[in-house]
Design brief:
112 residues; alpha/beta; five-stranded mixed β-sheet; 18% strand
Length: 112
């Protein structure tokens, strides 16, 4: 199955992560590109799912994601760029869980 609508739930969730408020509310962020996704995966990040261009899932990243049991959904060409809020072509997106940031500010020691 290929996702072909901006109204699809996974596309809507990804679009919400393009704003700071959306990222904070969901405790998620949006990774764009195979290199960044692979780095997050090798660092032990927990990915909810990945989206790839409909003609692009047959590569090394797709195998790594499958081995890690991360769902990979194929998306119609051009729709990924809309999901990411980009004007450039997008081949891969992934949604990792993010740790909430502490609201406490660090005090910088001063010398007197």
């Amino acid at each position: 199955m290929v996702i072909d609508s901006v109204k699809h739930d996974l596309i809507q969730r990804a679009r919400q992560l393009t704003s700071r408020a959306g990222r904070i509310a969901a405790s998620r962020c949006l990774l764009d590109g195979p290199a960044l996704i692979a780095q997050a995966l090798s660092a032990g990040a927990t990915l909810d799912y990945a989206l790839c261009a409909e003609d692009g899932p047959d590569d090394e990243l797709a195998r790594e994601l499958a081995a890690a049991r991360i769902p990979v959904h194929r998306v119609r060409a051009g729709l990924l760029a809309k999901a990411a809020g980009s004007t450039k072509p997008v081949r891969w997106l992934a949604v990792p869980r993010c740790r909430p940031r502490s609201r406490a500010r660090r005090r910088i020691p001063t010398t007197s």
